[in-house]
Structures are given as C-alpha cells and as structure tokens.
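One record is kept unedited as follows:
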Amino acid sequence: MMVKKLYWEIFSSPYQADRYRKMNGKKIAQMIKICFKKPIKSFFIFALVLTIPALNTSCALRMFQPPPEPAILQEEQLPSKVAILPFVNRTSNPEAGVLVRRMFYNFFSSLNYRDLEPFVIDENLRINDLYTDVTAGKNVSPRQLGQLLGVDAVIYGDVVSLGKIFALVYSDNQAGLNARMVSCATGQTIWKLEHTIHIEEGEVPISPIGLATAVFKTALSHTQANHMKAASELCMEMVATIPNPPGVSEPPPRIQALVHNGAGRLLVPGDYLKVALIGDKKQIASWSLPPLINNLPLTEKEPGVYIGAYRIKQKDRLAHGRLMGFLNGKTGVGSQWMDTLGPIKIGNPTVLPSVIAKDYVLSLDKSPYLVKDALVVKPGAKLTMEPGTVIWFRSLGIIVKGELQILGTEDNPVRLSSLGRSTWKGVFLDHSFGENKLSYCAISGAEFGFRASNSKVSIQNSQFQDNVWGIVMEESSAEISGSLIRTSQKSGIAARQARILVNNSVITENSSGGFLLENSRAQIVQNNILNNGGWEMKVIDDKGQVQAVQNWWGTDDPIKNEIIGPVAVKPILTTPIEFNIIE
C-alpha cells in the first residue's frame, strides 16, 4: 500500500504546462466576451452552425468522387513475375512506407501475377547494398533490379500521406500513394496511378475492410485503427485498377481482410487467439503464426467468412509474432495475407516484485514480465533490461530512485506497454543519480512515456508512441538521439528548467505540440519536426536559450505558424533526415 500511495503522490501533480494552457484559455474567453459583449455560448453556437455544414459538405463531396483513373500504357504485354519494392516514405509518419507496402502486397497477391514475398526482396536488396537507395527514392535501374530479383517488372511506390493531417479547423485522416509498374526489360511504365483517400473522424466504415477493422478495433489504438483502415481502402481501390493478365489455370482466390484479437495485448495460457479471414467463398483457408502455429485450418461459417481459434497452452511463448493468412482453391492456387494489425505476444508472465532493493536483471528467456501494481527501484539499486525483454503494466509503472539500464538492440528491442486498454503511468526517474540509459526501447500507452525529475538520462534509438505525454523533463538533463516521439495526446517533448540535446529524431503527430520548453536550455539539431497539432515548438522563456537550427520542418518558413517564442531556427534542412523504425 505504501508503494501505491507513493506512486500516486508523485504522479498526481500535473505538469506546469497544463496550468499555462488553462490560464491562457481563460484569458482568451475574457477577450472574446469583451469584443462581442455577448455570452461565449452564443458565439460558440454561431461558429458551430457555420462549421458543421462546411465539414458535412466536404465529406459529401468526397463520397461522390469518381473512382481513380489509372494510366495503362502497355496492357498488351503484361509481365509474369513482379516484385513490389520497398515504398519511399514521404510522410511525417515513419511507419507509412512499411504499412502501405504490406497492404498493397496483400491485395496484389490476389491478381494473376507471380510475386515475391517482401522479406525476400528486402534481403536481396540489402545484400547488394541497394535497399537504402530504393527506400530513399534514388534512381535504381529496373533492368538491374529485374536481374537481381529474377522478375519481369517492378512496382515503385511513393507514400505521400498516411494518418492525421493537422489543420486550423479540423484534422483529416488520409492516405495517399503514387505507384507505378515498370517493365524490367524495356524500362517502360506499364501502369501508374496517384490516389489519395480521406476518412473523416468517426466515419462509418462501408467496405468489408472497414467493417472488419471496426469489429476488431478494441484490440487497436484509435490511431492504429484509422491508419490501417485508410491504408486498406487506398490499396484496395488502387490494385483494382491494375490490368490483370489471364491466369494459366484458375485465378487465385481473393482475400479482402485478415483480422484477429491479439494486437495490443498479452495472450496468456487459457486465452483464445481468434482469427477471421474474409475472401472468396468455398475455398480452403488456414493461418500460421511462426514458429508457434503452422497452417491451422479456418472454417467457413458464412459465405466468404472463415474463422478459427487457438487456445494458448502453458508452454507457449512468443515475444513478437506475425500472423499470416492463406486462401487456396481446390486445385492448389492460392493467395496469402500479411497481418497488418500488429505483432502478437504470447506467454505466461513472470510477475515482478513491487520493490527492487538490489541489482536486478530482466531477461528475454523469462519474458514477458508483468507489473501488477507499481515497481520501485530504491536508491543504490540498478534495474537492467536485456535485449528482447517485454514488460506489461496493469495500472501504474516504474519509479527509479536508483539506476535504470534498458539495453535493447535493433533486432531485439525492449518493449513496455499497458496490459489491456487502460493507461499505465509510465517510467519515472525520481532524483536518480545513476547513469540512466534507454537504448532501442519502445514505450506505449502510458500517461508519461518517460518522465524525469532531478535526474540524468541518455535515450538512444527508442520510440514513444500513443502516450498522453511523450517525454517530460523537469529540472533534469537528457540526450535524446535517433528516437521517435509520436502521437502523444499532449506534447511530444516537454521540459521545465531542464537541459536537453535532441538530434537525429522524429517528433510528429503529437496533438498538443511537438516541443513545449519552459526556461530550459535546449539544443535541437538534425531532426524531423512537423505535423504536430497547435505548434511545432513553443518556448516560454525570455532568455533565448533554445537553439533549433538544421531541422526539417516540412515547410520553407516554420517561423510563420509553427514556432512560438524565442527560438533560433535558421538555417533549416530542405529535406528530411532518414529514419528507421522499430517494428
């Protein structure tokens, strides 16, 4: 009980920025009252009456937009074997290229082309030092790619949007892709299309893909669900315009969606992993979850709807599994679908104690771990998390008064997340005098992804997604490099009377600003800072202690709308930095 009381006392005091926001809101309300000399309620209703028809008209116009029209330049001589190359990501969302390409591949696999699996393509490109060139959009010869991959044609793709685009009046969820199929022999374009779709907040799904997403939305965050739905609709519409060659035998059956209840949660012994595949009726359906499950049959309960389940056994463990679905015809011709909902985690958790008073190591072989209440690392003790460690939290989180070492790797990152849909409190350094380090760590679903008070920390190659606050530093110092701070409900990085260095990182899609800095010394260099709600950077300071030069803001003049307060931003980058995500 003492541990729980301590935890709530520490986290109950809101960050200073909330007080500023509320004070500013009151001042704005008072100013409007003075200007209009009428109640605020009347003004708000008047504004709402003007706004709603405009948004409804926008939505209605999009509903009546004609289907996309592709350019088909060589339909007479269609290729036989095609490789879908890694897509170039030109968005603020670091996951966009991977997600949209995977969804495009899923729909394309139902056409009469022979296609290579993405991991085979990527492995060959990396071995031949071409992967980075392709993902950067550099001019790589289709003839060279054809010889290397053993294909007749390649598909290039540029993802131009995916996710929430913040605007002055409303936010718009959209997905956009510019794709083309090119002959490896001639270098000529066979098919090309640029297409964008828009999905309003709360829009009712009207396609099987949207319906499947809605059914399983409880397993996903709101952001993930919107991204997946947008990518699905976009790729389904685009692939439908690709010319389909006549099949040598019967055409492969089509898959429209694969959904399951395992994303964003921990499945323990006794739980059921439930799977549903939607596609052509009267086929043979199955699914796999390597290396745990291989070709488990699915039963057609309704025409074209195949379902199945697997009960988790006591010995089953899987830190980061990816599900695959298969639909085969009677002659053996088939299609497959790569799961896009998210990785599946299975295992009987190791319950951690509430207090760690001496050095303690968490390892992959005993993962996943579970913190039922709070975990306090006392002064003089060091908590170390080895590569691949997975920790789930029921409600509170970790308070570190000693030292924290999170030592993930690129291939085996450390993951900390909430067990279920509730928000946990996060990771908090409280007067920690140790050499704290976070490396290749992914933290999600917390009130504070990471928070420090009177402490020092180094954060490298880590990700903070879908938290209320991303990173909060109070009277502390931090070096943050190679990290992603994204989709926070409030600010991505907030600092009060702190010293921070941020470089080679991406700060994007945070609803209440990218940076919020109060009386802090900050050096922010070589980052992508864009598409944050409210502002990209807000500084509450009259000493001009923030240096934010050589960053990419997604615009030529960030000072106009995106910067509030005394910040040195020029010179700026004209192109974004390259960034790799933790999958």
